[in-house]
């Protein structure tokens, strides 16, 4: 009984008896994750073995791709169903490959270069950068989901926006490339949660501009004293998303309140948001629009000595020479 998924033809070529293979399948001693590929039943119940079995159905040049590659590469913030044992396995194959989709396996004909392929656990897989570009090309995936996944990869420094855009530039005019470029440009470095991405995209789609992420305040010794999830620096607007799990922990709760007062004390207008706000996009955007409209008058009344940020905002708005 093979402990590694092996094509039936290879087992027979190595001396296995066909009717014995059939008997092993009927009795459950051997499993066939995909037709024509056998593996010992005791070794079959894992995602990695199923991937190896799928690889055994393909040409040597086939590469794990798209959603399956995202799981194998360990991306953040993926849908749970992508990593389930029975999830469809995606491959990138040569343009001339004559194989077709089969139950549980989907093929995508792509031109790959050496830089587009890495090896994970002995399995050829699309690289981080190429996988993200391919996900961004896919019209069946939502803008929100794709940008969340890219934000997660940027957060972990798995790639850069420059690398992603350089990859996109290699395929001018191909289907989905314009979409991929647009979604990559919407991604940001320094995002700490998928809900922060959702908050930002909701505001951008509602017409709110000049948003920066992961803005930090420093003290006179260069130490970070506060971090804003979403900020409009010129207008001293400071937005934070409070996830329930982290912000209800005792120590986080204790740190949040003094930090909130500290940021306000430096002249910022602080807005804090929770999951319920994301389900009311019109009200969320209106809250920001009101804050934007009121910001100039508020900043005009602030003493420029209050903080370097206030002085900079007053200069940007023309209140200081």
Write the layout of secondary structure elements.
Blueprint: E1 6-7, H1 8-13, H2 18-27, E2 30-34, E3 37-40, H3 47-55, E4 63-64, H4 66-72, E5 89-93, E6 105-109, E7 117-120, E8 123-126, H5 128-137, H6 143-155, H7 161-168, H8 177-186, H9 194-205, E9 212-218, E10 224-232, E11 237-241, H10 244-247, H11 250-265, E12 269-273, H12 275-278, H13 281-300, H14 308-316
Parallel strand pairs: 5-6, 11-12
Antiparallel strand pairs: 1-3, 2-3, 4-5, 7-8, 9-10, 10-11
Tell me about this structure.
With 321 residues, this protein is α+β, with helices and mostly antiparallel strands. It has 3 domains: 45 residues; 129 residues, no CATH class; 123 residues, Endonuclease, Chain A. Helix content is 43%, strand content 18%. The protein has 14 helices and 12 strands. The strands form 4 sheets. A 4-stranded mixed sheet has the order 9-10-11-12, sandwiched between helices. Strands 1-3-2 form a 3-stranded antiparallel sheet. The longest helix is centred in the C-terminal third of the chain and has 20 residues. The protein starts with 5 loop residues before the first strand and ends in a 5-residue tail after the last helix. The relative contact order is 0.07. The model has no long low-confidence stretch (mean pLDDT 91).
């Amino acid at each position: 009984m093979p402990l590694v998924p092996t094509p039936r033809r290879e087992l027979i070529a190595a001396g296995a008896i066909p009717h014995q293979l059939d008997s092993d399948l009927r009795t459950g001693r051997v499993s066939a994750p995909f037709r024509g590929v056998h593996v010992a039943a005791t070794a079959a119940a894992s995602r990695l073995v199923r991937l190896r079995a799928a690889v055994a159905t393909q040409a040597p040049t086939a590469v794990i791709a798209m959603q399956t590659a995202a799981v194998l590469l360990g991306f953040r913030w993926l849908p749970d169903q992508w990593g389930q044992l029975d999830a469809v396995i995606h491959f990138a194959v040569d343009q001339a490959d004559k194989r077709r989709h089969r139950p549980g396996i989907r093929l995508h004909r792509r031109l790959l270069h050496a830089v587009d392929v890495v090896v994970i656990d002995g399995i050829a897989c699309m690289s981080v950068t190429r996988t993200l570009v391919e996900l961004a090309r896919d019209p069946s995936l939502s803008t929100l989901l794709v940008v969340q996944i890219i934000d997660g990869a940027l957060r972990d420094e798995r790639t850069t926006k420059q690398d992603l855009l350089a990859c996109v530039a290699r395929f001018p005019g191909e289907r989905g490339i314009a979409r991929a470029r647009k979604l990559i440009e919407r991604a940001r470095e320094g995002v700490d949660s998928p809900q922060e991405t959702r908050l930002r995209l909701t505001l951008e789609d509602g017409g709110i501009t000049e948003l920066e992420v992961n803005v930090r305040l420093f003290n006179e010794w260069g130490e970070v004293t506060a971090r804003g999830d979403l900020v409009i620096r010129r207008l001293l607007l400071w937005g934070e998303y409070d996830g329930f799990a982290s912000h209800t922990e005792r120590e986080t709760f204790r740190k949040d309140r003094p930090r909130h007062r500290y940021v306000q004390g430096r002249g910022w207008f602080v807005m804090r948001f929770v999951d319920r706000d994301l389900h009311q996009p019109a009200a969320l955007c209106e809250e920001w629009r009101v804050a934007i409209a009121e910001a100039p008058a508020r900043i005009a009344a602030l003493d420029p000595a209050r903080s370097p940020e206030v002085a900079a905002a007053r200069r940007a708005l023309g209140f200081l020479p």
